[in-house]
Amino acid sequence: MANIIDFTNEIEQAKYSSLVKNALSHRTSSSAEIITFGCQQNEADSERIAGLCSLMGFDTNPAGSMSSDEISVAGLIIINTCAIREHAELKALSNTGRLKKLKETNPELILGICGCMVQEKHRFDQIKKSYPYVDFMLGTDSIHKLPEVLWRVISEQRRIYGVSALPHSELGVIEENMPVLRKSPFKVWVPIMYGCNNFCTYCVVPRVRGHERSRSEAAIIEEVKTLLDGGCKEITLLGQNVNSYSGENGGFVKLLENLLSLDGDFRLRFMTSHPKDASDELIELMNHPKMAKHFHLPFQAGSDRILKLMNRRYTKEKYLERALKIRQASPDCAITTDVICGFPGETAEEFEETLEVVRAVEFDTLFSFVFSPRKGTPAANFDDQISHDEKIRRFEKLTKLTNSLSEKRNSLLVGKTERVLCDTEADNEGFSGGKSSQNKLIRFQNPENQIKVGEFADVEITEAFRASLNGKLL
Question: I want to staple 402 with a disulfide (CB 3.0 to 4.6 A). Which of 178, 244, 312, 366 is the partner?
């Protein structure tokens, strides 16, 4: 059972927030910058970090778009890290390294690292030893402790570590009523569960975010009601395995039904699903008028042998049955997926089975990644690790196929009308941009900004490309 913390009742954190706020009045800079790497869950975490920073009196930009000059005078910089692939970790460490000189020229600067990467012991030890100018580290279930950690850094003038060493079966806090500073008032993330119980052999998520734990359905509904009352138009429900959500009144489908019954002109999305939990009831619900017509369903590999080595708990046949069921039950629904290229021991023939799945489903978009061995996962120690060159060859072959299929799927929309949520003002040529229900990027003519940012527009599609569409306002 997750430890649920109501931040509004956290007397200690309120005290520390006030102490930090008072301390800022004696410091040169009160601006805060949050640099985020990784998935939508990390983005949502950063919005909560930004909310805490604002509560403590920092001038915080939730979009994280400070210029170089603004960063150079920041009073607080927090790097929110990802551990899903080595590239993401190296990028975060590189950014940390570049801040060393800034720290030397601005001694008042407080520099912190949080997120998934610092939950890995070898990375925690590396940062502690090799980056002595990092003032604090904060783990994935300790975000609510940021005011306390910052106050201790300021008052004790030493490095502070708020990273839990609990085993993954015990790791996990749900922080309710945290202050949130969102990037957008009309397009928002709402985490509904944290952690994962799947233990895919290539993945560190259960080890850095703990076992699955679901938020209260009542708390989620109350949060969504508040967002809709504030004019929100698109809500994305988040979870490492979102469709395994288990609330006090039932599972994921029951939660969706209750949210879809709320008043308002809005649409609902969710990320990311596991094929084993993609039920018939969930697939049928995709036809609801308020449900975004987009289903992200990772399959990772087409070979049953490789799927078993990955511990994915479904077969190629079962995956195809689910994906094609979506195509049949909801023809307007876009299907996107994830694929790993070059999993240890995967033969050339087995990779061809992956391509067979891609051809059979004709994904609207496919996110492909070369296998990245993660320390502490079983797959990192598997025999028959595939060479980098071969991984890249397979990656390029898959990319070529998926690009052609994406363009084909998009071309089917020419002449049709799509409802677009506008997210940019008209440019010099009179075009605005936004996303359709299928989560496709659409650029449309918007003379004199007739459609404002945050409003829906009916757009007739006139041109199709691999990654976007053009259209005209109706």
Answer: 366
Which pLDDT tens digits describe the chain residue by residue (474 residues)? 568 889 988 899 999 999 999 999 999 889 999 999 999 999 999 999 999 999 999 998 765 555 555 577 789 999 999 999 999 999 999 999 999 999 999 889 999 999 999 999 999 999 999 999 999 999 999 999 999 999 999 999 999 999 988 888 888 889 999 999 999 999 999 999 999 999 999 999 999 999 999 999 999 999 999 999 999 999 999 999 999 999 998 999 999 999 999 999 999 999 999 999 999 999 999 999 999 999 999 999 999 999 999 999 999 999 999 999 999 999 999 999 999 999 999 999 999 999 999 999 999 999 999 999 999 999 999 999 999 999 999 999 999 999 999 999 999 999 999 999 999 999 999 999 999 999 999 999 999 899 999 999 999 999 999 999 999 999
User: Distance between CA 15 and CA 331 in Å, rounded?
Assistant: 54
Pick 180-411's CATH classification: 3.30.300.30, 3.40.50.10140, 3.10.20.30, 3.80.30.20.
Answer: 3.80.30.20
What does the DSSP 8-state code read for residue 386? P
| 442 CB-near residues (< 8 Å, 6+ apart) | 418, 420, 433, 434, 435, 436, 459, 461, 468, 469, 470, 471
pTM, two decimal places: 0.95
How far is Cα 223 from Cα 232, in angstroms, rounded to an integer?
11
Please answer whether residues 285 and 291 qualify as being in contact, where contact means their C-beta atoms are separated by less than 8 angstroms: yes
Domain parsing of the chain, residue ranges:
3-162, 180-411, 417-473
Give the alpha-carbon dihedral of 59, 180, 438, 463, to 10 degrees.
-10
The architecture of the domain spanning 417-473 is Beta Barrel (2.40)
3-state SS record for 129-173: HHCCCCCEEECCCCHHHHHHHHHHHHHHCCCEEECCCCCCCCCCE
